[in-house]
Amino acid sequence: TFLNHEAAPPDLERAVEFSRADRMRKMEKEQWDHWKPAEGARRDKPFVREARSGQWRDTLDPEIAQRIEAVWNDRIIELGYPIG
Asked: CA 45, 25, 80, 83 torsion: positive or negative?
């Protein structure tokens, strides 16, 4: 609905399958060299980590986390994510 696109159940199942954290980690390892945004990125810092909600607060420096919340707080609330 958000994208104004009607998705058939097989399409939704495929999207869910490709969105699993273990699948994304595997793709990240296998396709690392093919992703333009990964150029210059450190291989010892994977993009897909624990795939746990709110993990960024535990991973980022507290000052940076505060800056993110200060800038994006309204949008985070609008999207229904918990704050703090």
From this structure: negative
| Predicted pLDDT at 20 | 92
Q: Virtual CA dihedral for 58, 60, 64, 68, nearest 10 degrees?
A: -70
Cβ contact 24:48 at 8 Å: yes
- Rounded Cα distance, 45 and 21, in Å: 15
Radius of gyration of the chain (CA): 16
Half-sphere exposure of 66 (CA within 13 A, CB side): 3
pLDDT at 4 over 80: yes
Any idea which residue has 């060299």 for tokens?
Answer: 33
- Tell me the residue type at 2: F
List C-alpha distances in Å: 66 to 22, 62, 63, 69: 29, 6, 5, 5
